Automatic annotation (TrEMBL), chain A:
GO terms for biological process: anaphase-promoting complex-dependent catabolic process; cell division; meiotic cell cycle; mitotic spindle assembly checkpoint signaling; positive regulation of anaphase-promoting complex-dependent catabolic process; positive regulation of mitotic metaphase/anaphase transition; regulation of meiotic nuclear division. SUPFAM superfamilies: WD40 repeat-like. InterPro entries: Cdc20/Fizzy, WD40/YVTN_repeat-like_dom_sf, WD40_CDC20-Fz, WD40_repeat_CS, WD40_repeat_dom_sf, WD40_rpt. WD repeats lie at residues 127-168, 210-251, 340-381. Pfam families: WD40_CDC20-Fz. This is WD40 repeat-like protein. Gene3D superfamilies: YVTN repeat-like/Quinoprotein amine dehydrogenase. Keywords: Cell cycle, Cell division, Mitosis, Repeat, WD repeat. Residues 30-61, 381-414 are annotated as: Disordered. Residues 68-371 form the CDC20/Fizzy WD40 domain. GO terms for cellular component: anaphase-promoting complex; mitotic checkpoint complex, CDC20-MAD2 subcomplex; nuclear periphery.
TrEMBL record, chain B:
The keyword rRNA-binding does not apply. This is DNA-binding protein. It is found in: Nucleus. One of its GO terms (molecular function) is anaphase-promoting complex binding. One of its GO terms (biological process) is meiosis I spindle assembly checkpoint signaling. One of its GO terms (cellular component) is chromatin. Belongs to the MAD2 family. InterPro entries: HORMA_dom (IPR003511), HORMA_dom_sf (IPR036570), Mad2-like (IPR045091). Residues 14-203 form the HORMA domain. It comes from Gonapodya prolifera (strain JEL478) (Monoblepharis prolifera). Its main location: nucleus. Keywords: Cell cycle, Cell division, DNA-binding, Mitosis, Nucleus.
Length: 414, 209
């Protein structure tokens, strides 16, 4: 290179702000690509801590209020052996016997048994064939009668005050794992997948037969207004029925395991929550008007039951392995409010107290625990008065087999 | 050394190189985090220089930076590097969007360090850390004035070296200094000195009228 062109080059370099004795090197390899696209705006807009709302700040007692022994509680997921009546009486089935625990006094009585057992005292009224056992219990809406489903397929109604069996409504071919009342209509779900509606006032009690489930029915819940019924079975299906129809209005196959946990939201008629068993672990929320799935939670554990709060926008789920906990979720945000642990085996059954504050849980560890999950909100006087007047306008009327023909009023099921 | 000066120490070239390299590591990681080049979930907070600094947990990014900085360290030892530049480039247009420049100068000639222990070479470690802390704080704070990167971006690292510096194969002569257009905004940030090296920092970004 001749001196003049060298000088020229230097001149150009200086004009460009480059130094000739320097080299600009670039690291040759491309930086690894970003795995996730990022938008800084959303990052910076994110609040540092979630907004404080009073519901989230609410303290929930993480210890049970009371613990009772429940020796001989059958560890079977498909049964429903616990129910809490509006009269504040808890019915729990231990083996073949139904016990009543009176929440106000704390007294326990042996209420009734099915199947003969020479060792049990004769003082307890007994019904049914020997070797039978109780597989489900359910209180009427006024708490005066207890429906009892048995292993041999019988559905019985017991009068609480007189401690005697009022009637027996056979018809199922296998055990009756779940019962649900709607006024004078008692629905029973059977191991063979059938659901029967029994009108308890009439002799010919079986008024409808729903046969869409192909496997044991373990979840059954009437909606608060009685216009719809949700059922879940071991065929992993959830059916939503119109009360007037014997074909399901919607069939939901999203669950991958038996569906025992079902509950209708008390404050939103068409909101249904369903929870699946061991292989599913999900809670799904449904709109029963459109059949649409609204949202889901993967809980990481089998869902054995679900309870909506009456006053709070919250739902409580009971679980099995690994933590055997109760989890309280807020709705619709689906944030976890609190985990309540304490059982050593899966929570089998839950029941909520008539005031909607305390939840009783019976677990495979043969313990019955009472949790004060919800506190009473500040009482709204007008609503309170409302609730009292509109209360049991129509009590479930139950009659003897012999007298049933006297009842003219029949529930029409189309 | 006198007893009274034990809280000060004279850095060797090696010691100073380590400090500068470490600063680059945290500095580059901070920029990658602050400018959203990688998702915030992929960073973990470390306490360093009295600050919580975010360092990428993505192994590929870590390896990339380690490889790059090990060469920078060699150049620092050879006193052959004068600038380290991180350029943020638009993925689609390959245009330079932002340019973070770190100028490295020697504060004193390491070859003559035995000749005299000047007071310039003496600096307590804490003072160095405080200066570095101030620079990193400014990098963090710069997101408040830098424009949001609207397009997907990637980055590249440039090194300005001596003409006859040793060049490993993974570094190539750049045909492009990734300079920003005339109307770009330049913001000079703080610098720090170790007594051996002086590092000044500067960020340039495209300005939008």
């Amino acid at each position: 290179m001749d001196p003049s062109s060298l000088a020229y080059q230097e001149e150009v370099a200086r004009a460009c702000g480059l130094a000739l004795d320097k080299r600009i090197l670039a690291f040759a390899s491309e930086p690894p690509p970003s795995e996730h696209p990022t938008d800084l705006r959303s990052h910076w807009n994110r609040p540092l801590r979630p907004p404080v709302n009073p519901a989230a700040r609410r303290k929930v007692a993480t210890q049970p209020e009371r613990v009772l022994d429940a020796p001989g509680l059958v560890d079977d997921y498909y049964l429903n052996l616990l129910d809490w009546s509006p009269n504040n009486t808890l019915a729990i089935v231990l083996g073949r016997t139904v016990y009543l625990w009176f929440a106000e006094t704390g007294d326990v009585v042996e209420f009734c048994s099915v199947g003969a057992d020479p060792s049990t005292s004769t003082a307890t009224p007994t019904a049914g064939s020997p070797g039978d056992s109780v597989t489900s219990v359910s209180w009427t809406q006024d708490g005066a009668y207890l429906a009892v489903g048995t292993n041999e397929g019988d559905v019985q109604i017991w009068d609480v005050e007189q401690s005697k069996k009022v009637r027996s409504m056979p018809g199922h071919q296998a055990r009756v794992g779940v019962l649900g009342w709607r006024d004078h209509l008692l629905s029973s779900g059977c191991r063979d997948g059938s659901i029967h509606h029994h009108d308890v006032r009439v002799a010919n009690h079986r008024v409808a037969e729903l046969t869409s489930h192909t496997s044991e029915v373990c979840g059954l819940k009437w909606r608060g207004d009685g216009a719809a019924l949700a059922s879940g079975g071991n065929d992993n299906l959830v059916h939503i029925w119109d009360a007037r129809s014997s074909t399901p209005k919607f069939t939901k196959s999203e669950h991958n395991a038996a569906v025992k946990a079902l509950d209708w939201a008390p404050w939103q008629l068409n909101l249904l929550a369903t929870g699946g068993g061991t292989h599913d672990r999900h809670i799904h929320f449904w709109n029963s008007t459109t059949g649409a799935k609204l949202s889901s939670i993967d809980t990481g554990s089998q869902v054995t039951s679900l309870i909506w709060s009456r006053d709070y926008r919250e739902i409580l789920s009971a679980h099995g392995f690994p933590d055997n906990q109760l989890t309280l979720w807020s709705y619709p945000s689906l944030g976890k409010v609190v985990d309540l642990t304490g059982h050593d085996a899966r929570v089998l059954h839950t029941a909520v107290s008539p005031d909607g504050m305390v939840v009783a849980t019976a677990a495979g560890d043969e313990c019955l625990k009472f949790w004060r999950v919800w506190e009473r909100k500040k009482v709204d006087k007008s609503r309170e008065a409302d609730a009292h007047t509109s209360r049991p306008a129509d009590k479930a009327a139950v009659s003897d087999d012999g007298l049933s023909s006297a009842f003219e009023r029949k529930l029409k099921i189309r | 050394m006198l007893a009274g000066t034990t809280n000060k120490f004279r850095l060797t070239l090696k010691g100073s190189t380590d400090i500068v390299t470490e600063f680059f590591e945290y500095g580059l990681n901070s920029i990658l985090y602050q400018r959203g080049l990688y998702a915030p979930e992929d960073f973990k907070s470390f306490k360093k220089y009295g600050l919580h600094l975010l360092v990428s947990t993505d192994e590929k990014v870590q390896t990339y930076l380690k490889t790059l900085l090990s060469q920078v360290e060699r150049w620092l030892m050879a006193s052959a590097i004068s600038k380290l530049v991180l350029v943020i480039i638009s993925k689609d247009t390959r245009e330079t969007v932002e340019r973070w420049q770190f100028d490295v100068q020697l504060e004193k000639d390491p070859k003559n360090q035995d000749a005299s222990i000047t007071s310039r070479g003496l600096k307590p470690e804490k003072a160095i850390h405080d200066e570095i802390q101030a620079v990193l704080r400014q990098i963090t704070a710069s997101v408040s004035f830098l424009p949001i990167l609207d397009e997907p971006c990637t980055f590249n690292v440039l090194a300005y070296t001596d003409k006859n510096a040793e060049i490993p194969p993974d570094w190539k002569d750049s045909d492009n200094a990734h300079l920003l257009p005339e109307n770009a905004q330049h913001v000079r940030l703080r610098g720090f000195g170790t007594g051996v090296h002086r590092v000044e920092s500067l960020v340039a970004y495209r300005s939008y009228e």
